């Protein structure tokens, strides 16, 4: 079982232990299991829910989405039933059954969805998609203007991101301790371990480096790799992509500072682990599936170094 799945199952706790039982039948083929009813008011059209959610399909190892990887909740907008394309038992119906503090598991019938919407059935599943949901906060529309409501959401997310910022140092320290690592540390905060020492020169600014790599979060979730077999194993494979070593010119091409610094510490042929804090990674904004203030782990192999162009000598005939 993959590390990310282990992490997620620990995070959802009770949801994971009840996912195969006690389902009730709803309209439109929707199946549901209300794991916890906190007794709060349920969501109404126009409301917003902040939720933690894991989405899988009825196929083996079919993790499609998880807010636990990002470390931030997802905002779900409860749409009015009058919107065209909605039907009883659809995605919107699930969240109208929930309020603040509730948790539940839903199985959305994809055959019904295809029939009701006239859209092709998704290829990622056979019969249903499963949603494990925990509601963090319920934003009630009531008489609020849209701007007032979204101002509440904005303040809420500022606090969530601040929590990630405060937790970053501890996450990286826990990863190092858990894996019994003894990295070297530079002034920038970069930490690194040379697993296999190469030979020859180290790259300098202006050289082009050729690198094999795998990047992951400290919870074990891989977000990028140039290893096609690993990408397939982790359900990250993109058939439109060429899986080959990445090439970039040190100090010239736009890569994160952790890479620019870290690869200059390695000889050609070296294999290493780079532990990159967000200050020299993707910072307070994150990027793609990388959360804000996320420390990153890169396993890299410096395959080759192509010397950069030599500077032209000064023209001794120039007239001052």
UniProtKB/TrEMBL annotation:
The keyword Isomerase is assigned to this record: yes
Tagged with keyword Isomerase: yes
Sequence ranges assigned to domain PPIase FKBP-type in this UniProt record: 206-306
Domain of life: Bacteria
Catalysed reaction, written as an equation: [protein]-peptidylproline (omega=180) = [protein]-peptidylproline (omega=0)
GO molecular function, a single term: isomerase activity
InterPro entries cross-referenced by the UniProt entry: PPIase_dom_sf (IPR046357), PPIase_FKBP_dom (IPR001179)
EC number: 5.2.1.8
Coiled coil stretches, renumbered: none
Family (UniProt): Belongs to the FKBP-type PPIase family.
Name this polypeptide is given: Peptidyl-prolyl cis-trans isomerase
Species for this entry: Sphingobacterium chuzhouense
Classification lineage: Bacteria, Pseudomonadati, Bacteroidota, Sphingobacteriia, Sphingobacteriales
